[in-house]
Write a structure and sequence with these properties.
Elements (H helix, E strand, L loop, with lengths): L1 H28 L3 H6 L15 H21 L2 H19 L22 H21 L2 H23 L1
Helix pairs in contact: 1-3, 1-5, 3-5
Length: about 160
């Protein structure tokens, strides 16, 4: 049960980091709002195969942004500082070209150091669940099915990797 809870928290934070990296890429790509809107974003994970409409993309971005803000409200200033330091270290690692594509890079590694309380973990799980439900609500049935298939495939790959 504790491992599942930690996995949910780590997944929520990883999702937050992913969404944050998209925002950083968009900000550094162009300071002009017009050019920024025209700059194609790199879609990762299951999102690239779902065929999201522009409306769905903007709705998802708003959902992620709201969830990220809620996550930050849960953290203490010290935890925020630790999280920021972990994000900077990860960014520096990516820029230095360390780690191979497809290699597990210890995503969420810095989050174990945050020493979250049980109340914080519960709040984060609730935020993540709410975010998941909101995303599910904007997807078509076909997109939901593709997303579920992606998650199932990821689960199987994780089990295969862990059994080796």
């Amino acid at each position: 049960m504790k491992l599942k809870a930690l996995s949910l928290v780590a997944g929520a934070i990883a999702l937050t980091l992913t969404a944050t990296s998209f925002a950083v890429v968009a900000q550094t790509a162009s300071p002009s709002p017009v050019l920024l809107a025209q700059t194609p974003q790199k879609e990762r994970g299951p999102w690239k195969d779902l065929g999201l409409t522009d409306t769905q993309k903007s709705q998802m971005e708003a959902i992620h942004k709201a969830s990220r803000a809620k996550f930050e409200e849960v953290l203490t200033p010290e935890q925020k500082a630790k999280l920021q330091a972990a994000m900077e270290a990860r960014k520096a690692q990516r820029q230095a070209g360390q780690g191979q594509p497809g290699q597990h890079r210890g995503r969420g590694k810095g989050f174990g150091d945050l020493n979250l309380t049980e109340a914080q973990k519960t709040q984060m799980r609730q935020i993540r669940e709410s975010e998941k439900q909101q995303i599910q609500a904007i997807l078509t049935p076909e997109q939901r099915q593709k997303l579920e298939q992606f998650h199932q495939n990821m689960k199987e790959r994780r089990q295969q990797r862990n059994s080796q």
